[in-house]
Design a protein that fits this description.
The protein is of the alpha/beta class. The protein contains four helices and four strands; from the N terminus they run βαβαβαβα.
Length: about 130
């Protein structure tokens, strides 16, 4: 029987409810595309749920492995230190779970496509 996977999309967290709602919506859209996968979201700080709370929720849903997906564009202190440190602490606390951490979104070609599409929406002339 395959391991039950959970994906946790994590962002920084904000005092602005609209900003926090974005990662929840992204997680919802991922869940629609991956119905067999447990999908949750977390905020690194400021807002709930925390990464710890998201892990507990996934564990309660039967997760055996957790992939943490940083919803950050570029590598930086949070994606290279803060989040990896949080994941390491959680892996020590929950040795029954297999934790993995993805890279930030970076310069993925689809992001370039999105930026070009957005620019075309605002462009006054066509190329």
């Amino acid at each position: 029987m395959p391991h039950r996977s959970a994906w946790i999309v994590i962002d920084h967290g904000s005092r602005q409810a609209e900003a926090n709602a974005l990662v929840a919506e992204v997680a919802r859209q991922i869940q629609l595309r991956r119905p067999g996968t447990i999908v949750a979201y977390a905020h690194m700080e400021i807002a709930a749920p925390s990464l710890d709370e998201a892990v507990v929720s996934c564990l309660g849903q039967g997760a055996e492995e957790i992939l943490v997906l940083p919803f950050f564009l570029s590598p930086g202190r949070h994606t290279q230190e803060t989040i990896p440190d949080q994941v390491a602490a959680l892996a020590a606390r929950y040795p029954e779970l297999d934790f993995r951490l993805a890279d930030p979104l970076g310069s993925h070609p689809k992001l370039v496509d999105i930026l070009c599409e957005r620019a075309e929406q605002y462009s006054t002339r066509s190329s």
